[in-house]
Amino acid sequence: MISKDIEQVTLFEKFGFQSREEKLKLVKEADRIVEQNILQHIAADSDAVFDKYVRDESFFQEIKQKYSVRIVYIYVYADAETICDRYNKR
Asked: Minimal CA–CA distance to 5: which of 26, 30, 29, 38?
């Protein structure tokens, strides 16, 4: 299981942030870490489940073209109140 949220929280706790720009840098670093973990699983020919909001599918399209892998997307929907509550508790 690979979770972007876990990577983000780890980076937030380790480095902290004082501005939105600093936070976004850590968010992008968490993306990079998750993508590297995914590539390591592909290289090891092992299965992985990851939890990541996909803003840009280009990374996954490149993976599908370069490697012989199957990617399955699972979308979880919730009402706005639940989403806001979850987001604000982070």
From this structure: 30
SS3 28: helix
Task: Please say whether the dihedral angle defined by the alpha carbons of residues 40, 46, 26 and 57, taken in this order, is positive or negative.
Answer: positive
The angle, 0 to 180 degrees and rounded to 10, between the axes of the packed helices 58-66 and 20-43 is: 20
Give the type of residue at 28: K
Residues of the chain with pLDDT under 70: 52-55, 90
Q: What predicted TM-score, i.e. pTM, was given to this entire model?
A: 0.73
CA 28/CA 51 separation, integer angstroms: 15
**63 token code pair:** 């993976």
The H or E element containing residue 3 is: strand 2-3
Cα-based distances in Å from 40 to 17, 47, 48, 86: 29, 10, 10, 30
